[in-house]
Amino acid sequence: MISKDTREDRTTAQNDAHVADAGRENGSDNGRKDHEQWFVRLAVNLCRLVLGVVFVFSGYVKAIDPLGTQYKIQDYLAALGLQGIVPDVVTLGTSVVLSAIEFSLGIFVLFAIRRRLVSKLLLLLMGFMTVISVWVAMANPVSDCGCFGDAVVLTNMETLLKNIVLMACALVLWRWPMEMYRFISRSNQWIAINFTVLFIIVTSAYCLYKLPVFDFRPYHVGANILKGMEIPEGAAQPQFETTFVMEKNGERREFSLEDYPDSTWQFIDSKTVQTAKGYVPPIHDFSIQLAEGDDITDELLSRKGYLFLLISPHLSNASDTNFGDIDQIYEYAQQEKVPFYCLTASAEGEIAHWENITGAEYPFCKTDETTLKTIIRSNPGLLLLKDGTIIRKWSHNALPKSNELTAPLNELEIGQMADDSVTKTITQVVLLFFLPLLFLTLADRTWAWSRYVRRRTRLLNIRKAKDDEKEQ
User: Which pTM was predicted?
Assistant: First the structure.
């Protein structure tokens, strides 16, 4: 049974193949309609480009940071009063599935795969997202929507405006889905569909097992933490406004500093609100405190040489499958006289339990939970700093082994700045995903064009034969 989409695809192809003949038969009567059709196709394919690029980018930056997306989902649940009710495995699964859907829909619309179905799904998803963004813009339950992860941070109002534009584009595609020019024939689209879904799921799994292939956070490799905490000279300062509540003869009024009343008024209360944020440095909430309460942040970050920092927001949730590797690294650090600290937001009971099950002997320090989650997407994760600059980051699944720790750090590869350039990573993504898709598209279009040429040649030969018969 031939589907409606297939019949319409064939009709579109036939119309394109015989456009010259149709023009000669109909004369100039359809000139205005052709102009309108051209304008519709232009609008549809521009909207398709906008939606495709945005969805691919949004889905990919979420996919490479599944834990970061999970944290944002948990922020939304907390705003709805559902914090702690939904299991972590559900929020993590939602993170992976959501990013896969966004990325896949973006690729599908760019290549005009399953045009009718994809245009409807895009409209449905954008309708849901627009409703969410209206709530976020009005109620302000989270500081940013997390639409583009940590790569691009938008205000809630900017998110709403962005979604309105995308919603309009989705409506255009829903109205004229068959006007999208198709790059891959319907018979070969299953290859692109399966390849796209497999690629983005594997990408999320890889980044979850190791670390995000792109690190958009302020604690990326190459970042100097102290410099990230600096406020440039002349930067805008935060502005505050204080209001005083005063009472006189049973009457209460509010005054500012400029119109503060005389002593006949009795002070009742004061309220201070921030009217302008001012400059906020990329790293503004990082601190290291000993159990006794002493702050050793500057002492550790200002020292020359290497420093190991084991990061665990909560030790009760940390994986203990590789604690042996952690202990070996700590023993190596002691041998090489390299400081080694564990930064955590855990309570004393959690720390004691971790020490019991792992035999940990390294010192523990207190750091803010959100900061620790931002530093590294692994629990636990390991950082290596040199002169206050992050030079290496490891997931607990990819820690250095004992056979790699056979000399002082300055003589080892792991003691040098990691070669994780953005250009190199982008090249790898292009080679692994976009190049195979491009080859598929070129092969498909070459075959379609050759088939069209053969059909056209056959029709011309038939017409020529008929003309020869008439002349005879």
Answer: 0.81
